Amino acid sequence: MTQILKKHPSSLNIKAGNLAKKLILNDGLRPAQVDVIPGAAGGPKGIGIQGLDQAIFGDFLEREKIHRTVIGSSIGSWRFASILAWGAKQGTERLAELYTNLYFQKNITAQEVSDICRNMLQGLIQGKENHILNHPDYHLTVLAVKSQNLMQSDKKLALAAAILGIIGTNAISRPKSGLFMQRVVAQPENGQQFKIADDGFHTHYFPLLENNVEDWLMASASIPFAMSGISNIQGAPNGVYRDGGLIDYHIDLPYQSKGIVLYPHFTDHITPGWFDKLVKWRKANSSNQDRTLLISPSQEFLKTLPLGRLPDRNDFVEKGLDQKKRIQIWNQCIAESQRMGDEFLELVEKQRLSEVIQDL
Q1: pLDDT tens digits for 212-227?
Q2: How far from chain centre, in Å, is Cα 8?
Q3: Residue 281 sits in which domain range?
Q4: Residue 83 maps to which CATH number?
Q5: pLDDT at 197
C-alpha cells in the first residue's frame, strides 16, 4: 500500500503591501530589491526568529550586496548591531546565548536590571563599535525616545503618572503623547541619512559615534519601570532617554525605500507604538507599508513550540518556570526557528512567494 505523506504545515506567514506585492508578483523577490530592513521592539521574541535572521542576512542578502539601511527599536537595534559586529550566524547566536542566560533575582531594582543588560550589551558589541558604524553593507539606525516632563523621572509615582498620561493622550491621537516623549533617531554620520516626514512627533537626529553607540543601544531598550532611563549621552542634549518602542514599537514609518522593505517580524501585524496595543482600532499606515514584505511565524508553527508562542520577557517571572526550564524552552524555540529560515530560502529559490503571499 502506498503511504500518503502529509504536507508539513507552513512555518511562515507572508504578507505584503500593495506595491511590494506587485513587484514580487511581476519579478519575484531578488536580494537587489531589498534596501531597508526594520527590526521591531519585543524583547526575547527577537531571538525567537533567529533562523529567519540567519537565512536573510547570512544567505539571501549576501547574494547581491548593496548598501542597506537597518532600522531597529529596542531588541531590533540589538539584533542588528550584533549581526553587523559578528556576521549573521555568530551575531545571532551570540545575542541568543547572552539573552537566554540572563538571570534576574526577585525584587531586583530597575538600576540593577539596567546594569545586567548593559553587561550583556558590552558582550555583544565591545571592541566592535567602529565596525558597526562603518559597516560596508549596512547603515544602522537606532530608535529611542527623549523623555519629557514627568516621564524624565525614575521615581515610581511620577513615572506612573506619565504613563497614565501617555495612555490617555495616545487614545485620542498618537502625536498628543508628545507631551511626554519625543522620538530620537541615532545613526552614523556617514552614508545616506534616514529622515522621517513630519508625523506629529518632534524628532531629534543625533550622531551614532564610537563613544555613544553603547548608550544609544541601551536607551533604545530601556523599558520604563523595568530599567532606568539613560542620561549623559555623548553628542546629545541633557535628558533622560528610553525605549524606542514606546513610540516606534513595530516601526510604522515612511522608509524612503526605492525597492522592497524586507521585514522579518515576530508577529503578522504592525502595531505602531507600544501603547497602541491598548488601542485595538489603530492600524499601521498603509502608505508607510506599501513596499513592505512582512515575514513572520505562522500560527501552526507557534503551536509546535513548548509554550505555544515565542520566548517572552515575562518568562523570567512566569510561575512554575525556573531558570533551567526557561533556558531549555528558549533554546528549543531558537532551534525550531531554523525551519522558518529554511522555508524562506526555499520559497525564494523556487520563486513560490506569489503562491503564498497575502495582503498586509
Answers
A1: 999 999 999 999 999 9
A2: 28
A3: 12-359
A4: 3.40.1090
A5: 85
Task: Classify residue 141: in a domain, yes or no.
Answer: yes
Number of domains in the chain: 1
Residue type, 242: R
Domain annotation covers residue 121: yes
pLDDT 10s digits, 95-143: 999 999 999 999 999 999 999 999 999 999 999 999 999 999 999 999 9
For residue 338, give Cα distances in angstroms to 5, 92, 246, 267: 22, 12, 30, 17
Cell 533622560 locates to 240
For residues 110 and 225, the answer to whether their CB atoms sit within 8 Å is yes
| Residue 53 near residue 79, CB atoms below 8 Å | yes
pLDDT digit string, tens, across residues 61-77: 999 999 999 999 999 99
5 belongs to a structural domain: no
